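#struct-pred

JT: dropping the chains for the assembly here, can someone run the whole complex?
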Amino acid sequence: MRKVTVAATQMRSRGGGDANRDAAEALVRAAAEQGAQIILLQELFENNYFCQKQKPEYYALADTVEENQAIQRFSAIAAELGVVLPISFYEMRNRAHYNSLAVIDADGTLCGVYRKSHIPDGAGYSEKYYFSPGDTGFQVFDTAYGRIGCAVCWDQWFPEAARIMALRGAELLLYPTAIGDEPLNPALDSRDHWQTVMRGHAAANLVPVVASNRTGTEVEDDWQITFYGSSFIADEHGAVVAVADRESECVLTATFDLDAIDATRNAWGVFRDRRPDLYRELLSLDGETAE
Amino acid sequence: MRKVTVAATQMRSRGGGDANRDAAEALVRAAAEQGAQIILLQELFENNYFCQKQKPEYYALADTVEENQAIQRFSAIAAELGVVLPISFYEMRNRAHYNSLAVIDADGTLCGVYRKSHIPDGAGYSEKYYFSPGDTGFQVFDTAYGRIGCAVCWDQWFPEAARIMALRGAELLLYPTAIGDEPLNPALDSRDHWQTVMRGHAAANLVPVVASNRTGTEVEDDWQITFYGSSFIADEHGAVVAVADRESECVLTATFDLDAIDATRNAWGVFRDRRPDLYRELLSLDGETAE
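RK: done, full complex below.
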């Protein structure tokens, strides 16, 4: 048996900076007190979701891996508490800007950095203005508590990303995210759609999924987004085993036996029966095989 | 608006042959009376699920496309009723045997044949004994009522298959299937897992999914399988809009506006934002890129 307790956290922005990092730290400490060993904070938790509008001055929110304050602070907390912490941050490296995730191991060392591969674009979610599509490819990280696959928000909509992390041996999939209503289409509620896609990844790959979403309302000029929370943990069959409401700041936990799940995954046979010889169209945008 | 009504049917085997084809015809006629234009029958409905045991004599159940009785009979019914009918059958072509699906258009002509790509193997589901893995690749069919993607049973567990059909423009995904309990592991109930994976395909690709499963108990020598029915139709967000119980023989229908779904799919942006440059590992079994 190799039991691991994971946590999803959920919080609202305090406007950014230390107030946000303080709130995130409080949630991490609360999760650790509940026994969590891998604790997920939401996407870009250091700031308001600045992608609501296209403003050149928000480029100043980006930092290098070495200088980012959240990575520095939460590396020390990870070592103190003995927990794994994927930290979402706005990364600048030379002239490039990315929506990145630094995975910090339970001894406080940096396992590596993943850069969000799929970048959305739409009213209220102008991420293509702020971030280049990531160049790292999909990543798994060998941590003190297992091999984890981490991707970021919009990545969670793509079965390809989940599958590649699973193929590389991910035992858990973690997605920090920031999603809510649509400023120009208030009737659209994607909450259930969002959960169903990720539950599908869990079920298809027989890997538990942890999703940590922002909550609260953030105003930017002439409109606002209310993030819908609803952070959740799904088991290896895609069943939701813990879920938050839309408004609360909270910690969810679940415990998984990674060895038992591995046995279940092998017994089910889907990784044995894949047909890579028939998947070439996946390498195209339009379903035509490019030679 | 381009509204299409689809139907999933669910039945038990009468032991095979004309009794099975009669029962299937009754369900097709009932579905057509309810307005269905695309009607899905379950996997290998002409026979008991013969893959429970490995018996060489069951190879005699295979036919060529030209000689299969179900294809002949349901082609006439399709033309009479003006309905599209994907027909699952045990195909023999020269020395090869496949688990195949003949898609019959609403005028009774054959759109084409798909051969099941992913072949399961386990106690009670000895399909690798009877079928070679299909060589057609994933198929979409232009029918009188839209472009449909069809795959068979175990294929429904693979996000790659659903994605390729969606990339090729499938507006609906249809899966005939035969799944139930596990003779050697009676405690295992994969019903919810099975539904969640396919709901995930619908949600990730923004394409409705229709699944038609067998029901009833079939005895083969020293054991039996009880097929769990639970046929369902999910909408383009993965929400279940119609679902059968485990035991009933029945018809489910749902109506979709394929133009409205197409607009929703484009607005959501996932097909715009895919990263084929990062998906090469999908062409491997083990997540290592093969050059």
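JT: nice. The radius of gyration of chain B is 18 Å. The mean pLDDT of chain B is 97.
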